[in-house]
Amino acid sequence: MDINTLKTQIELEILQVNSPEELEVFRAKYLGRKGALAELTSIIPQLPIEQRAGLGQQVNMLKSQLQALITDRQKVFSGGATKVTSSTICDLGMPGIAQELGRLHPITQVIEEINTVFVNMGFVVADGPEVETEFNNFTGLNIPLNHPSRDAFDTFYLKDYPKMLLRSHTSPVQVRAMKSRKPPLAVIVPGRVYRPDAVDASHLFMFHQIEGFMVDTNVTFSGLKGILETFAKKVFGEEIKMRFRPHFFPFTEPSAEVEISCIICKGKGCSVCGRKGWLEILGAGMIHPNVFKQVGYDSKKYSGFAFGMGIERIAMLKYGINDIRLFFENDLRFLKQF
Ligand code: PHE
Predict the structure, then answer these.
(1) Of 310, 321, 322, which Cα lies nearest the Cα of 168?
(2) What is the pTM (predicted TM-score) of this model?
(3) Which residues of the chain have pLDDT under 50?
């Protein structure tokens, strides 16, 4: 048989081989001692001398092709060729576009940091609604409807609900928490507040505050000082100094404005602190007896302190940010830095 015909026959026949046993028969038929290739080889010496080398080469080539076919077929039976393993999967696609990991907004980060400081001192975190009643935002906090101090908490009222408003501070949650729980209480309340301020580098119509308050039988002003000093040192650094200056809030008496030594100039005086060396960071005081009366607590038995701070201001001081609007423009070049 001519070697090319033999080759075609082999290629067709291997496709009919369906089991290891059939493969062995096939192998013997072609590669065995009395197989087709052996037979071909045996006629080589009878050929004219100039044809011998050529046929010898062709037979050798066919032999290795045959060997390869047999090995491939063996793989099919052992599962090697059809089983797709992770190393045989080859991704010919374009590389995907990697999703960037998100991160917490800097204001959220500062809120979480401050929460942690207070939670470590035994406070619990609470929240309240951004749409509040006039009572909780004002009356319950000893701010009567006609009281001029209400101007300080300029307010968005809801058009169709005259006694409802967007809370102008987080203090209404004092009223809510005191009404729904009994002392001892140590609570912090982070959240959004709203005021119709003209927008500039230090004012927005919406910002965040953290309220804190503690009520028990023997809560003192010195306790307030200790708690706030611990907070300031944890957030701004151990070397920070703190001072209390007399102030007025309707819902605390006495009231104080709390300042820390300027974190930029360390108290020497610079443009951030207006050359005073001090930065106002929060309002605080002892809870007014009228507030206790509104929530049904006995002000002879209980005393308490409260404080409230603006988060944006704290974040701006902490990170040296000079424009409050940057927090809410959603510019990733800004946000990615935190
Ligand atoms: N609610 C006050 C404000 O928004 C801050 C404050 C809270 C002051 C608690 C004293 C006690 O300015």
Answers:
(1) 310
(2) 0.72
(3) none
Mutate which of 118, 171, 197 for ligand 1? The one with the most ligand atoms within 8 Å of its CB, which is 171
Is 155 touching ligand 1 by the criterion CB < 6 Å? no
**285 CB under 6 A from ligand 1?**
yes
Q: Three-state DSSP class for 110? A: helix
**Per the structure block, which two tokens stand in for 244?**
């209390």
Cα-flanking dihedrals φ and ψ of residue 132, to 5°? -120, 170
Q: What is the number of other CB atoms lying within 10 angstroms of the CB of residue 150?
A: 17
C-alpha 209/C-alpha 196 separation (Å) is: 16
Q: Which helix (H) or strand (E) holds 108?
A: helix 106-119
23's enclosing H/E stretch is helix 20-31
Query: Cβ(106) to ligand 1 under 6 A?
Result: no
Check pocket membership of 308 for ligand 1, CB cut-off 6 A: yes
State residue 90's pLDDT score: 74
* pLDDT given at position 243: 96
Provide the CATH topology of domain 106-335.
BirA Bifunctional Protein; domain 2 (3.30.930)
At 271 the pLDDT is 86
Reading phi first (left if > 0) and then psi (alpha if -120 to 50, else beta), residue 142 is in left
Determine which residue's CA is closest to atom 9 belonging to ligand 1: 307
SS3 for 14? helix
Determine contact, residues 151/213, Cβ cutoff 8 Å.
no
